[in-house]
């Protein structure tokens, strides 16, 4: 059962990461488009990390990270052969490394929230007694 959940975590991270990456680079999530605006769309990559971490039984940080790392070559391949690349290879690589970081950060954020909720529940149980 644990091996099954391990692969579910990797596959969900892979699929969600690919969808968000291609949607952003394909122009689906366009912001205001100003010259000095930051890439706030990178925060969407927290979502695959959180979901994959929740679906994994063990290795809750490794599964989202592996899924994101497996998705990067596929995203580059689709980006360069079907979508027109708008930036240089190095800019795309920097963007993808940032996206992988935010995906792993989402997994760590999920673990932090899980520990915080568990500690709060234990505190409330002690107060009742």
From TrEMBL:
InterPro entries: Uncharacterised_YbjM
Keywords, comma-separated and alphabetical: Membrane, Transmembrane, Transmembrane helix
Pfam families xref list: YbjM
Origin superkingdom: Bacteria
TM stretches of this protein: 6-23, 61-82, 94-113
Transmembrane listed as a keyword: yes
The keyword Ribosomal protein is assigned to this record: no
GO CC field: membrane
Name of the protein in its database record: Inner membrane protein
Organism lineage: Bacteria, Pseudomonadati, Pseudomonadota, Gammaproteobacteria, Enterobacterales
């Amino acid at each position: 059962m644990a091996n099954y959940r391990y692969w579910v975590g990797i596959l969900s991270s892979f699929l969600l990461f690919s969808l968000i990456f291609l949607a952003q680079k394909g122009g689906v999530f366009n912001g205001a488009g100003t010259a000095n605006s930051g890439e706030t769309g990178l925060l969407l990559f927290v979502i695959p990390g959180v979901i994959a971490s929740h679906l994994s039984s063990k290795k809750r940080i490794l599964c989202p990270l592996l899924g994101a790392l497996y998705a990067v070559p596929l995203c580059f391949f689709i980006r360069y052969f079907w979508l027109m690349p708008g930036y240089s290879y190095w800019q795309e690589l920097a963007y993808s490394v940032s996206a992988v970081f935010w995906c792993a950060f989402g997994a760590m954020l999920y673990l932090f929230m899980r520990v915080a909720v568990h500690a709060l529940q234990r505190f409330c149980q002690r107060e009742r007694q």
